[in-house]
Amino acid sequence: MERPAWAPRSIDISVPSVARIYDYYLGGSHNFEVDREAARKAMEFMPGLPKIMQANRAFMRRAVRFAAGEGVTQFLDIGSGIPAFGNVHEVAEEVSPGARVVYVDHDPVAVAHSEAVLAGNDAADVLAADLRKPQEILSSPQVERLIDLNRPVALLLVAILHFVEDADDPYGAVAELSQALAPGSLLILTHAAYEGIPLAPQRAEGAVDVYKDIRNPLIMRSREEIARFFEGYDMVEPGLVPMPHWRPQPASEEEDDPYAFSGFAGVGRAA
After folding, report:
1. What confidence tens digit (pLDDT) does each residue in 91-131 have?
2. 241 in Cβ contact with 266 (< 8 Å)
3. Is the Cα torsion angle 257, 258, 262, 265 positive or negative in sign?
4. Is residue 151 a contact partner of residue 205, using CB atoms and an 8 Å limit?
5. Across the strands, what pairs with 155?
6. 208-227 tens-digit pLDDT
7. What is the C-alpha separation between 146 and 122, in angstroms, rounded?
8. Cα distance between residue 186 and residue 25, in whole Å
9. With 0-12 CB in 10 A as exposed, 13-18 as middle and 19+ as buried, what is 202?
């Protein structure tokens, strides 16, 4: 397999990547056949996966606009993935010129492509780091340069926590990040769940097994388990809901596809 110029030499392009699979679902071009093969296998069980990812991105953009409209001008996007249409810095800038953004991901392709997209942008940067090591993120030069932790921050954990197993203490990681944020900060979160998927759970499990086979387990948590991530936050209306139900825009195409209602999304405000 020929290695394209955008693929860092350090990555094994014969092994599927969650970030590149997500890129494929969104119609991106930063993925390999091994990623597309894994995605197609998952879609054999759950054909609406691309629609779920589109609903996820649409929620993220609405939540960022909400945060910027509330006067939050700093964004920390952990598990940001490979840049796609409507990135956080682009959406925030539309509402709040001068907004500052730090993207965080541990996937080398996501980091390399983000660096290319952000070249020359002094208000946004990218960090190669892992959610499971919050202090490495909080003490990084990128965060220290762009994020003032004494002022409100929008912390985005969009479609990432369901890739963190309980053994790696995702609740502890979120709590550690949250404790570093000023009052008025926002937690913007989405998470996969069996609830809302228009399939029998046994069939949906087939897609989950594909992620297990590529050694990136997809952890489906209940609504109650997802709500625990918001401990210490006051939920912003309408609360923890299916993605299309969070402050929908008029004539949203999401409402037409039942797969878009899979999983949950919410925004919390730190007291």
Report:
1. 999 999 999 999 999 999 999 999 999 999 999 999 999 99
2. yes
3. positive
4. no
5. 76, 187
6. 999 999 989 999 999 999 99
7. 9
8. 28
9. exposed
